[in-house]
Write a sequence for this structure.
């Protein structure tokens, strides 16, 4: 649902019948952190911003402070406030909460007033400056797969309590069996199924396609294509919609990369292209190259080839941004429809990057589909990484480093053409944070040290955890 364009001068009039406003920013894990404020408070901070506790960049997704204190929020600075500024262009109303006004905020350093280096929305804006300076706009589309579980007794918000007393495998799937693209399975939970679709439309994070995927209780949503900055916001808000509507129906959606052993994981594929100022696709080559380096790129422009090369060259170095959790790497294994190498190919779904060009796509739909990210990834970080790496390839005129993935390659097979991507979060973080990492080149030391530190925290918690698998395997036998 489109909302009127807001400015500091008209926002009071547009909110004249409201008494409260909900505000939220995005943390390093891609989670929304926010609050409800009075309209009076909101109007008083709409131009200059307001203080927001920096600890949202000093603790993990369960509010546990990081083992190693990082630069933004720590004992030395007293966990001081950072500056949060409402983004008036993000205005929408929450239809399942009596249409309360909602705004996203971005975070800034309170001293310099510059974008906070770990703010996901700020990082994406910085990445977009390269192509925008040359007159290009980045366009993107997101696809998310996710499992859904029937909360026991369909009591809202009881999943966490249930799992304290029961094994994970006891949590029932919303529907059983493997039935992708089913027209009948959604009818089992029709009110929820259509409720999500309609709420997304009303909340301005529209779904383009919505169907069951192969897996018990698995759905997939393709979000409406648009400019990259807005796409990241809408992708994040899509998860918010699904979780909110799910709660009302006693359903727990899971965007974990691999919630069930032995079944396919949840992807978060991202499509990307650049367009010129007149809207024409800058990745499309109007006349097929009669002598391309590979037949797969005959319809891909020089700009598109450089952009593709940039992503491929930097891909191993930014893996924590695509696969941010310990669980992420349970999805990225051979023969589970997930890419595991630095690879690409024309219409090749086993590759890390699927090239989509004519003749199978129209000229305006020429694009790259980056298939490595999981549904657990932060869409702002994913798009920032794709654009920053791709633009690095353009600026350096990089050559595509590997040939296209051979046709007939096993889905997710390791292949001979490309380097194997990190097999676990520890290896990914080590590559991400090393001194000469491409991540440091494109994002700077401050961001890499901070985000790398947050992932090291995840690793330490995992290393200290005693899992059900270990107890079952060793409790009697060792």
């Amino acid at each position: 649902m489109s909302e009127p364009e807001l400015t500091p001068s008209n926002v009071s009039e547009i909110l004249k019948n409201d008494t409260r406003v909900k505000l939220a920013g995005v943390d390093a894990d891609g989670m929304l952190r926010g609050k409800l404020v009075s309209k009076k408070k909101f109007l008083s901070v709409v131009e200059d911003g307001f203080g927001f506790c920096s600890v949202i960049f000093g603790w993990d997704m369960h509010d546990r402070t990081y083992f190693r204190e990082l630069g933004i929020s720590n004992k030395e600075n007293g966990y001081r406030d950072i500056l949060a500024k409402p983004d008036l262009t993000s205005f929408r109303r929450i239809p399942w909460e009596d249409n309360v006004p909602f705004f996203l905020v971005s975070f800034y350093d309170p001293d310099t007033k510059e974008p906070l280096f770990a703010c996901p929305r700020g990082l994406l804006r910085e990445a977009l400056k390269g192509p925008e300076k040359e007159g290009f706009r980045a366009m993107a589309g997101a696809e998310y797969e996710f499992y859904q579980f029937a909360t026991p007794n369909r009591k809202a918000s009881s999943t966490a309590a249930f799992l304290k007393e029961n094994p994970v495998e006891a949590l029932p799937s919303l529907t059983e069996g493997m039935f992708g693209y089913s027209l009948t399975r959604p009818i089992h939970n029709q009110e929820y199924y259509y409720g999500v679709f309609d709420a997304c439309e009303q909340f301005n994070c529209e779904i383009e396609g919505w169907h069951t995927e192969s897996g018990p209780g698995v759905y997939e949503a393709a979000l409406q294509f648009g400019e990259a900055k807005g796409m990241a916001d809408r992708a994040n808000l899509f998860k918010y919609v699904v979780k909110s509507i799910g709660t009302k129906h006693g359903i727990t959606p899971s965007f974990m990369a691999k919630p069930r052993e032995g079944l396919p994981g949840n992807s978060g594929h991202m499509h990307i292209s650049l367009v010129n100022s007149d809207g024409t696709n800058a990745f499309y080559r109007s006349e097929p190259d009669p002598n391309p380096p590979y037949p797969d790129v005959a319809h891909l422009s020089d700009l598109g080839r450089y952009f593709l090369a940039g992503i491929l060259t930097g891909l191993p170095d930014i893996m924590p941004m695509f696969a941010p959790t310990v669980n992420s790497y349970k999805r990225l294994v051979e023969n589970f429809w997930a890419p595991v190498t630095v690879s690409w190919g024309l219409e090749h779904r086993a590759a890390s990057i699927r090239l989509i060009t004519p003749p199978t796509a129209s000229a305006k739909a020429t694009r790259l589909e980056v298939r490595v990210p999981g549904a657990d990834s932060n869409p702002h970080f994913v798009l920032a990484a794709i654009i920053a790496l791709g633009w690095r390839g353009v600026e350096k005129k990089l050559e595509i480093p590997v040939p296209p993935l051979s046709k007939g390659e096993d889905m997710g097979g390791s292949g001979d053409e490309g380097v194997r991507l990190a097999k676990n979060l520890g290896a990914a973080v080590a590559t991400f944070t090393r001194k000469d990492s491409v991540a440091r080149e494109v994002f700077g030391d401050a961001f890499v040290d901070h985000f790398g530190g947050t992932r090291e925290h995840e690793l330490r918690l995992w290393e200290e955890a005693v899992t059900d698998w270990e107890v079952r395997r060793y409790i009697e036998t060792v």
